Amino acid sequence: MLRGARIDLESSAEAAQKLVEVYERDLEAREVSDDMLKAVRTIVTGLQGALGKIADTIDKEFGKDKHPYFSIEADPARFPARLERNLPGLQASHPDIAAAIERQQPYHPGHEILGLLPDLYRVNHHHDFSVQERRETQSVDIRVGGQVLMTMGTHGMTLGGPPPWRGVLVERKQDASIDIPENAVPIGEAMIMEMTRHEDGSTDFYINGKKVGQSPAGLQAVDDKYIDWYFVKPEASVLGTLIPLHNLCAQACVEVWDSAGL
Known about the structure:
Layout lengths: L2 H27 L4 H29 L16 H8 L3 H4 L1 H8 L14 H10 L5 E13 L2 E7 L2 E4 L8 E7 L10 E4 L2 E7 L5 E5 L2 E6 L3 E13 L4 E2 H23 L2
Helix pairs in contact: 1-2, 1-7, 2-6, 2-7, 5-7
């Protein structure tokens, strides 16, 4: 790994640990502390710096040394033109490196959050730091025998488990059970939940024909309230964005650097 990029990633990781330490404290105080602002700024600038140093070194070794940028493009149709603009000639001379950069793009599943980095960097580096908003959100888990079957609420709907991050839990209301309908229930586009009852009173639960759980007690609803800090621009959870963003950038640096064989 390039030394400068490694140092930037280490700084981001240390700041992420600090952010986790102060996050709940600041939520309870209803005020963003200097510690939190410093941590967020260090993460954002560190990640942008690490990607930029990787791109700069690759351009000096294989490109035209034209003040390059690491390409991040949300539209796959526009990626080739952006790559050519940011790293001229790389696609033609070293398609393997270009392919490694392409694999990191936010239009690939699991990489969506990387698309937020340019806006975060522009807003929080070139201007006064982005205002943080404290928000309350609701989330309802539908559980089978203690296992989360699906989650609905402010964060949308997920199947097979809760979303990775919903905020800091502040209140929980638990209902004893939910009546189980006799027929299949539509729970979203192209998704059907079905229940099969057995003589012993237990119930099997299926989504689109795949068994996802079994419970002797049926369905249970758990209604949770969370609090979280949100960026105003882009509109996204602070902690829920920056931790996976750090991981994606670290992965991108390693994969692209390894593809260059430097």
